Amino acid sequence: VTENMRSFRNIFLYECLFALTFWKHCSLSVENELFISASNDFPEDGSDKKIKSLPLMHTNSHQSKANFDWVVIQNTTESLSLSEITNGNVKKLVSLLSNFRQGSRLQNLTLTNVSVDWDALTQILQTVWHSSIEYFNINSVKQLSDIEKCNFDYSGTSMKALTVKKVFITDLYFSQDDLYKIFADMNIAALTIAESEMIHMLCPSSDSPFRYLNFFKNDLTDVVFQNCDKLIQLETLILQKNKFESLPKVSFMTSRMKSLKYLDMSSNLLHHDGADVQCRWAESLTELDLSSNQLTDAVFECLPVNIKTLNLQNNQIASVPKGVAELESLAELNLASNRLADLPGCSGFSSLEFLNVEMNLILTPSADFFQSCPRVRELQAGHNPFKCSCELQDFLRLERRSGGKLAGWPAAYVCEYPSALRGTQLKDFHLSELACNTALLLVTALLLTLVLVAVVAFLCIYLDVPWYARMTWQWTQTKRRAWHSHPEEQETVLQFHAFISYSERDALWVKNELIPNLEKGEDCVQLCQHERNFIPGKSIVENIITCIEKSYKSIFVLSPNFVQSEWCHYELYFAHHKLFSENSNSLILILLEPIPPYIIPARYHKLKALMAKRTYLEWPKERSKRALFWANLRAAISINLPTSFEANEDESD
């Protein structure tokens, strides 16, 4: 400890001993170390060598309260804190404070748990007003007696700031002016009256030096400071947690505060319906806190034109109307915890740099936000119920191009919908370009459709699908006509052993070889030939179908001529249809001449399949082998026709 500090400490102890000879307790802090004296014996020379000191943190507070008139919490060369102030020790307190005249080092005084009457309270204030104290804090004040008018002397003070918290007034009947006037006319820079259920505050009687007013958590209403033109130096006004309701009235309140820069109206009951009510704010106001009120979209019709920082958090705003508010100076806007469904544009906020839209109802943020708001440096859009879909892809690309402008990314950006993706961070959500690009998807679908149509068309042409469709239609129509003409005939009666299908170019072989060899002898085979058995008046197709259905077998004489015949193709198709529809083994193939595969048309794919899967009889060129050929053919045809039909045939012959 330096000599100057030691000398000052001795002087302070002497003054403490002189002022508190009837108290039993004095504390001293040297180099930020706090001690409390527990001895009643002070040396006459003022030295502290014989003072028995203990650290304050080891002192029994209950014992101290029992032994002393009040407890000294802290006392340094510049700060003094006292508690348990009552009417019984006010005179001692005033006597002590009177020693700290202007020029003393004591600048900070805190009184806690003050329970005195009105006269004692005003006496304490008056004493402090003419001391060296600059910052005075009073916590937990209980006023016990009637409040009366007080002629307070504000002159010659060193005071800069007064803070009063948790004031409880027991007097129910008093003049409001007597209470509030003493505070309203104070000639200090800063005044705080908080958590005190204060219902009103007077306008100062003359131009006030107040630069800072804080009336946090009281019961003030819209009538406060209306038409008050005395707060011309006021820069900061805090009215948080009161009972203000009308936003226009709040604006009128500020209109005469020529120096006001910051206004806190958060946690009130403010609303504005925009019913042709003009708002008039202080032109100097640049920072406004309207959070936790009942404001809707109409609030943008009642805002200070020169505002730079605006807090509208926790209101009922669903959108930011375009063309309503032209806030060209607005740099910071907080719209968190509202009802926004999308990011607001910057058409009226050309200088906006910071935007907070957290905890709204934004599903898919607009991807053109940074284009409409080029000066925005930080966007807080997390904790919204994001819908992870194609529309969100543009926003994700925006994040990648933003250069870190999204605050809280990626932890605060999580999918809420659909439920399958709930909890997934947006950075982990990906969809293909094809799934989200409508134009690309349409082009791709169109190309695939064209390719599919081209393939189908090619197959139709190559496989002659129209021809098969036409044949199927003719088959169906023929069957239908036959059923309507003879509905009593439920089953077709077999009349022939075999129907012969051949090309006209092979007719000579059929007439000279096939028919004579099958129809001669005891086992005469009844053959159906178009020249003999087609019924005049019916269509060729109908005759073909009828003959095939009335024949047990169908003999196809295959040759290069056969595959070139259109009618042979018809006959093969209908016979093949019968093969599958009746599940019968009714086809007999005779290969009259070898058929090179390359000359078989594409639509003859059934013929190719039959020749590949079924056994066929090949006409031998050697005469010695022909007897076996005819025997095999007869064996393949062998069947007994109905007796009645054979008898009819004999009679007709």
Automatic annotation (TrEMBL):
Matching InterPro entries: Cys-rich_flank_reg_C, Leu-rich_rpt, Leu-rich_rpt_typical-subtyp, LRR_dom_sf, TIR_dom, Toll_tir_struct_dom_sf
A Pfam family hit: LRR_8
Organism placement in taxonomy: Eukaryota, Metazoa, Chordata, Craniata, Vertebrata
Keyword Transferase on entry: no
Key words of the record: Glycoprotein, Immunity, Inflammatory response, Innate immunity, Leucine-rich repeat, Membrane, Receptor, Repeat, Signal, Transmembrane, Transmembrane helix
GO biological process: cellular response to bacterial lipopeptide; inflammatory response; innate immune response; toll-like receptor signaling pathway
Entry GO terms, CC: plasma membrane
Underlying gene: Tlr1
PROSITE patterns attached to this UniProt entry: LRR, TIR
SUPFAM superfamilies registered for this protein in UniProt: L domain-like, Toll/Interleukin receptor TIR domain
Gene3D superfamilies in the record: Ribonuclease Inhibitor, Toll/interleukin-1 receptor homology (TIR) domain
Name used for this protein in its record: Toll-like receptor
Main location (coarse class): membrane
SMART domains, sorted: LRR_TYP (SM00369), LRRCT (SM00082), TIR (SM00255)
Membrane disposition: Single-pass type I membrane protein
Highest taxon listed in the record's lineage: Eukaryota
Subcellular location as annotated: Membrane
MF (Gene Ontology): lipopeptide binding; signaling receptor activity; Toll-like receptor 2 binding
The family this protein is said to belong to: Belongs to the Toll-like receptor family.
Residue ranges occupied by any TIR domain in the UniProt entry: 494-637
Parts of the chain that traverse the membrane: 439-463
Species assigned in the record: Columbina picui (Picui ground-dove)
